[in-house]
(S)-ureidoglycine-glyoxylate aminotransferase (Sphingobium boeckii), 408 residues
Amino acid sequence: MRNVGEIDPPQRLLMGPGPINAHPRVLRAMSADLLGQFDPEMTTYMNEVMGLYRPIFGTENPWTFLVDGTARAGIEAALISLASPGDTVLVVNFGRFGLLLSEIFKRIGAHVETVDAPWGEVVPLDAIAAAIERVGPKVVATPHGDTSTTMAQPLEGLGVLCREAGALLYVDTTATLGGMEVAADRWGADIVTAGLQKCLAGPSGSAPITVSARAADHIQRRKHVEQGLRTGDHDDGDGIIIGSNYFDLGMIMDYWSDKRLNHHTEATTMLYGARECARIVLEEGLATRFARHTASGRAMSAGLRAMGLRLFGDDRYRMTNVTAAYIPEGVDGEAVRRRMREDFEIEIGTAFGPLAGKVWRFGAMGYNARKHKILITLGALEAVLRAEGHRSSAGCAVDAALDAWNGI
Ligand SMILES: *Cc1c(COP(=O)(O)O)cnc(C)c1O
């Protein structure tokens, strides 16, 4: 039962795999009044957003902007603008989000090949190299961090392999951007996309994206300007038309360019939010921010282990911002989540697919990757687990997490 006189809506601590609590500054920025999408102040904000996201993506790509919609909007825009029906594509698949990339490519009508790792592992680079050689893909697509398995795929050297094979490389960094290093240029990635609701500490609904010159050329060849906007000076590309109007990156890029060609009505409130997320990241500094997420992951892991929980997945490739732990035998995973929510106002994550009902996922991302929030979560979990029949010595998780946070 909820407490009498409880505030509405409840103030919950979101310690799952995302969404997480938005930074209060982001929420404040989003309460500003609307501007027209071609208002010079708005287009100034748009140019500013492009500049703010370049260092966050680790890129010098001029084409760095936002796709309106959740992270999946960025993914769909990238994949449908890169791949044409009938193209062979290769997906690096080590969890739910690799499966999602395959599914989107199939809907596009591409011929999908995969190179797979079991959930909890990553795909070795030489296996990807062999698959590229065998398959001859036009596009290689991979998640960076896959929150479903908590694994981060190493990406050093993948861009070179793709370039040598004439393939374009797409990377989904939704779960890692602003929390773990994303190095679009050094990786040699052609399109990288993300969302706000994980380490960037915003609400879902805007998808930052960066597009290399090579990918931009490819897209321009496929661009077809919408009928009602055409004037005498629009040249269509001679490539196969992109199979979506909303997600035609060529048209979205025309809107973000000096041409300011009309496309969708920019989600200006989301743009304020995305801009504030990026400003906060850069004010903190990328290195400091990554270190904070590393300390968080270390503390969360240490606390969970101290309670006798077994962590899921290969330690070497664990994401710093989300950790999965097996539900101990005899403990009702959903009862634990319910008590966490009802008694402590803390949300922790369930799992998908083969891990459903087997693990919980604990996030410590963005605004929530803080010492006190991790300690509060672990302290609450300890009490809840005791109530649900899992014994551990009182205080052990918090003590272990504090030591790990402090690097002891
Ligand atoms: C969370 C997550 C998404 C989420 O996509 P939405 O459309 O914002 O729900 C996509 N990709 C990865 C790797 C994620 O972890």
Residues 18, 70-72, 97, 143, 146-147, 172, 174-175, 195, 204 surround pyridoxal-5'-phosphate (CB under 6 Å). The radius of gyration is 22 Å. The mean pLDDT is 95. The chain has two domains: 24-281, 286-405.
